[in-house]
Specification:
This protein is α/β, with parallel strands linked by helices and 455 residues long. Helices cover 25% and strands 26% of the residues. The protein contains eleven helices and 21 strands. The protein folds into three domains: 32 residues; 205 residues, 3-Layer(aba) Sandwich (Rossmann fold); 173 residues, Ribosomal Protein S5, domain 2. The strands form five sheets. A nine-stranded mixed β-sheet has the order 6-5-7-8-4-9-10-11-12, sandwiched between helices. Strands 13-14-16-15 form a four-stranded mixed β-sheet. The protein binds thymidine-5'-diphosphate (TYD) and magnesium ion. The site of magnesium ion has 4 residues, from α2. GO terms for molecular function: ATP binding; ATP-dependent DNA damage sensor activity; damaged DNA binding; hydrolase activity; zinc ion binding. InterPro entries: AAA+_ATPase, DNA_repair_RadA, P-loop_NTPase, RecA_ATP-bd, Ribosomal_Su5_D2-typ_SF, Ribsml_uS5_D2-typ_fold_subgr, Rubredoxin_2. This is DNA repair protein RadA.
Length: 455
Amino acid sequence: MAKTKTQFVCQNCGYNSPRYLGRCPNCGEWNTLVEETIADEVPNRKSRVSLGGETAKAELIKDVSLEEVPRVKTSLKEFNRVLGGGVVPGSLVLIGGDPGIGKSTLLTQVSGQLGSKGRVLYVSGEESATQIKMRADRLGVGGDNFYLYPETDMSNIREQITTLNPEFVIIDSVQTMQEPDITSAVGSVSQIREVTAELMQIAKTNRITIFIVGHVTKGGAIAGPKILEHMVDTVLYFEGDLHHTYRILRAVKNRFGSTNELGIFEMREDGLREVANPSEIFLEERLTGATGSSIVVSMEGTRPILVEVQALVTPSVFGNAQRTAQGLDRNRVSLIMAVLEKRANLMLQNQDAYLKAAGGVKLDEPAIDLAIAVAIASSYRDKETNPSDSFVGEVGLTGEIRRVNRIEQRVAEAQKLGFKRIYIPKNNLQGWTPPTDIEVIGVTTISQALKLALA
Ligand code: TYD
Ligand code: MG
């Protein structure tokens, strides 16, 4: 019988401590340390994984053959693209997202399509076989190669994989799976780590592709330690607004492709449908021809998002001009209005201004300045912006447009989402070649930008 002891494990980053600490010294989060029991010796440790299979040995780098990574294509092109061109056999893919966003739906659809390429085992720790069957019927998937297995015990799952010998396995979700050797609670860091290590071993030694569903925390990260994201080959996030039907699938890590890809889907009665022209989503709620609207490409962490900035400028009634801002910093708005007044001759001091970042998002970075300025000027002059224009740039106090970071990513995102033109700081044009299928205009001053954008 193995001796057991307990330790405190940070549920955010996986840091171990022999005693309780209020604050994790590793990631700085408060109240994240939880007592977990660890067996002194875990029988046959799963974390020793051979990535090249049982027969792999060291070889000279010049002898390593560079054969194409084989890809299995599903009929969801957006899904293939996010994966870097298709499903790579033997890879471990983690899909994170809010509850109810459609992870199980997406993977049920994908399973149905992969059924024509090989055997698929769908392991669910959350729903019964009947529930999954009902969903599959609604989605119109089934077939001879699609197996359902409601189970949470990893040793049973391993056994089932050995007998069934599938090419593709879905684990829905990693937080519900349980390694019986580990006494820690289901969903704890130790459990998630061991379950993932075991899945990785199964994937790599048998060349099985495993899709793992992971829940996300309130902060938006996949629940459990960062370690989970380090262990897998690919991390995808499935996001969207529960009040809207559109969903975005993004690669945030991909050992077999670029992380700049995103796929857009629409959640319908009969499942997820690909959206052929994604810019429609962002333009559809915009009133084309309305004044006081502009599109900005803003960075949310390392991810670019496109957001509509709206402004309503009206003459103030009470002498004391109002300025309100929703989702934008009011001080930033006041500053930009002062610059517009002084450097672009807009008489704004006796105007009320209401600003809004549409869709309920919060934007806070200098690169949104230009879009705010354009929206204000557009409303003030009653002159609409071109619906296929987008704007990026910081506005300085002398009216200059200052350089912003990650310009290539922003331009690529605007182009990907169907925008025809993007205004950027002129200084940002140096050092790279802009893509050709979007018109990139470099501007130096706010008055020059307004002249071009509101011509
Ligand atoms: P689900 O895939 O269960 O979400 P997750 O696994 O990420 O928690 O999807 C849940 C929502 O999707 C549910 O509220 C109903 C909706 N839905 C549709 O609108 N159309 C469909 O065809 C299906 C299967 C689900
Ligand atoms: Mg689900």
